[in-house]
Amino acid sequence: MKKKHQSRDFKTLLELLTVSTRLGFTSFGGPVAHLGYFHEEYVRRRKWMDEKSYADLVALCQFLPGPASSQVGIGIGVMKAGLLGGIIAFIGFTLPSVLALILFALLLQGFDVGNAGWIQGLKLVAVAVVAHAIVGMAQKLTPDLSRKAIALLALVVTLLWQTAYTQVGVILLAAFIGFLLYKQHATPNESERKNFPISRGFAIGCLVLFFGLLFLLPILRETTSLHWVALFDSFYRSGSLVFGGGHVVLPLLEREVVPTGWMTDEAFLAGYGATQAVPGPLFTFAAYLGTVINGWQGGLLATVAIFLPAFLLILGTLPFWDDLRQNPKIKGALMGVNAAVVGILISAFYHPIWTSSILSPIDFAFAAVLFSMLVYWKLPPWVIVVTGALGGSLLTLLS
Q1: Closest C-alpha to 235, from 292, 273, 274
Q2: Where are the transmembrane segments (predicted)?
């Protein structure tokens, strides 16, 4: 009987690995598209979850900081096969893009990044992609005047005082404003209670570890001066403070790796452009950054560091989600945070993306073409990336 149970568990884990890896190779288009792929595969085809459970899981992951689509994938794996299922679902979905970006970073080291025309093209791709993200997020997250004002405040503050602590302060302030403005506006969901394959004690342990690392890593970084600790701290903190989708990690990572001298703006934006060409979560951008900084070992360390908060948070909150989602005050605070995210992203769009990419009228014209291809003609992101790289090379030859 025990052997049959073990065999069934192994088959479940193998199936989970197979399905998540296929999604990791084919899920282009960003977090919203990923959620669509997950729904089609896990809910409609395999019926591992019902519609309501999936909607609740998505709502939880939107509420938490971190990469929402990756957290949904982890959550599905946990609910299907426990903790090991969550780990396997994450590896399958993430590994293809991690390996691709590590390889890209290793190949890039032999080139003169600053003068390559195709690199300039990838930087213009970043302009188009982030502009598209801003338009979509602004429409969804700042529908009324109050939230537009919160976004404007976040934009002004993060643009004028560019430090890592500024963003944390802006997010906390926005949460407080949202709590005051929308605590009566948000209405709780009435739905049935659910049981999760994680104990509350284990969940509390995950949350303690999340906050413990968030506060202890900077202290350890200062007292040891070890490069690996500094690298882990930078990426862990970035992964812990991202609300509103993967694109928001851009300003956090830029302020961790460029001012410190770990890499140039050109190398940073080239990697961001290349990340648009691979499937899977945008957070795998960390694999490229870590590799540029410290080889493939740095790439793997940065990947673990930036995704670890997502793991700890989804494992730490699943058993408590029923209580959280009934609380309108928490929803009100989240509405404020989401509005601030729009302002933070616009700030990052201006600097470093716009200031280091749009250097002439022809740059602006080409970026407008790429934006139109993405938004109006709705071409796949990889087509935009290839067009940007080829167009950048051509513009360099003509100039």
Answers
A1: 292
A2: 83-106, 118-138, 150-182, 202-220, 227-249, 269-288, 300-321, 333-351, 382-398
Give the model's pLDDT for residue 190.
46
Task: Look at the block and give the residue holding tokens 């993967």.
Answer: 246
Alpha-carbon gap, residue 209 to 222, rounded angstroms:
20
The answer to whether 230 and 298 are in contact (CB under 8 A) is no
User: Among positive and negative, which fits the CA dihedral 253, 86, 332, 205?
Assistant: negative
Q: CA 355, CA 211: separation in Å to the nearest integer?
A: 35
User: The tokens of 380 are what?
Assistant: 């796949």
Name the DSSP letter for residue 319: G
How does DSSP classify residue 44?
Answer: I
CA of residue 259 relative to chain centroid, distance? 21
pLDDT tens-digit series, residues 296-321: 999 999 999 999 999 999 999 988 87
Residue 143: strand, helix, or coil? coil
What is the pTM (predicted TM-score) of this model? Answer: 0.75
What confidence score (pLDDT) does residue 330 get?
78
Distance CA 152, CA 173 (A): 13
Task: Kindly tell me the sign of the dihedral angle through the C-alpha atoms of 191, 196, 200, 205.
Answer: negative
